[in-house]
Write a structure and sequence with these properties.
Length: 384
């Protein structure tokens, strides 16, 4: 292959990681458990009110930090829900969580700065760090420790170049939710080492064990935390591509400047949808969260009875991350067998980091009935 015109950073490195939208459907009876996109529709009220706003003319560029009304609604949300006083200047409306993470890394990192990333973890993090000139430093979380943070390992990963730590709870892919005690220890860790915490707070409606509390609300943390929120999962708005960043104002100002050179503003119609989503959140959040809780619990109860599976009880999110090591297969080999013999697609755990090599990620973005069919098929697998 001739990569003549490509940047040497990317030549030969185009890996297709699509898990939604344009993935092939190999079998008529395929059950796709690989997608991180909820199967249920966006709450109707959001679509209707955004549509009405679009007809009323909200189809133009917006203020570059987002519509003032939406920024105010975000401040109010933080006050009502977490009793946090966020000022307007500390809010930036982004093009979903993904672009938000890109902007945050660009704003924070100097060449060679190290960023602590728990693995298994959401797979774009390392590349987001590298694209900003940073160096990802992985800290493993393992099945034997229920994927909880091992603070000894974390301490050993710190160097004088460490600048930031990415925190994601409820977690994709492991389903772990950090307890308040763990968050307190993380806050203490960040303060002691003078680090920025980058909180990827994207599954906050899906903490099934406790009321979600942002790490930014812990004492001494706001001034060193950049929080990324997305409307994708909590509001079932993945295709709207809208999210927000909450951070100290001097960081937001730089993020705004970078974003003006990338996309200028988040899409106006999506911002209107986000505004209406926040206005109606209390009406639908519980129902959505209950759907996923039921699915995750169902999937866990089925999986734990399959003899070759090992996994902790997930605390939140949409995902389960079982180990298939006892079959003698890697996650990738197991995923292939599942596809070939059961017509089920899952993601090999190695995609999320080295500690996921013998795992698969199962996404509960299909109904309980579909999950039941999938596990019925899975139970018939045999391993010689
Ligand atoms: C942990 C985590 N962070 C960020 C994202 C990005 O979501 P979006 O760009 O749709 O806001 C996802 C999506 O799956 C995710 O799982």
């Amino acid at each position: 292959m001739n990569y003549k015109f490509l940047s040497s950073k990317y030549a030969g490195k185009a890996i297709d990681r699509s898990t939604s939208g344009d993935v092939p459907v190999e079998y008529d009876d395929l059950i796709n458990l690989s997608i991180g996109d909820p199967d249920i529709p966006t709450p109707r009220v959001i679509v209707e009110e955004a549509f009405r706003d679009a007809l009323a003319g909200h189809t133009k560029y917006t203020a570059s930090r987002g519509y003032p009304q939406l920024r105010q609604a975000i401040c109010k949300f933080y006050k009502d829900r977490y009793n946090m006083e966020i000022t307007d200047g500390q809010v930036f409306v982004s093009t979903a969580g993904s672009v938000a993470m890109f902007l945050v890394m660009q704003a924070l990192l100097d060449e060679g700065d190290q960023v602590l990333i728990f693995e298994p973890g959401f797979f774009p993090y390392p590349d987001q760090v590298k694209m900003a000139g940073g160096v990802p430093v992985f800290v493993s979380t393992v099945l034997e420790e229920n994927f909880q943070i091992n603070f000894d390992r974390l301490e050993k990963a710190v160097t004088e170049k460490t600048k930031a730590i990415i925190i994601n709870t409820p977690n994709n892919p492991t389903g772990v939710c950090y307890t308040p005690q763990t968050l307190e220890k993380l806050a203490d860790f960040a303060i002691r080492h003078d680090l920025v915490a980058v909180a990827d707070d994207i599954y906050t409606s899906f903490d099934y064990t406790q009321k979600f509390t942002p790490i930014a609300s812990y004492p001494g943390m706001f001034e060193r935390t950049v929080t990324i929120n997305s409307f994708s999962k909590n509001f079932i708005m993945t295709g709207f591509r809208v999210g927000n960043i909450v951070a100290p104002e001097y960081i937001i100002n730089v993020i705004k400047m970078i974003n003006e050179n990338v996309v200028y503003t988040a899409p106006s119609i999506s911002q209107r949808a986000a505004l209406h989503g926040l206005e109606h959140f209390d009406e639908f959040e519980g129902e959505i969260s209950a759907i996923f809780k039921e699915r995750v619990e169902y999937a866990y109860n089925r999986l734990k009875n399959i003899p070759y599976i090992d996994m902790p009880r997930p605390g939140g999110g949409f995902y389960l991350f079982p180990s298939v090591k006892r079959t003698g297969l890697t996650g990738a080999q197991f995923a292939k067998k599942l596809m070939d013999e059961c017509h089920i697609r899952v993601i090999p755990g190695g995609a999320f980091g080295e500690s996921g090599l013998y795992h698969i990620r199962i996404s509960c973005t299909v109904s309980v009935e579909k999950l039941a069919q999938a596990f019925d098929r899975m139970e018939k697998l045999s391993f010689e």
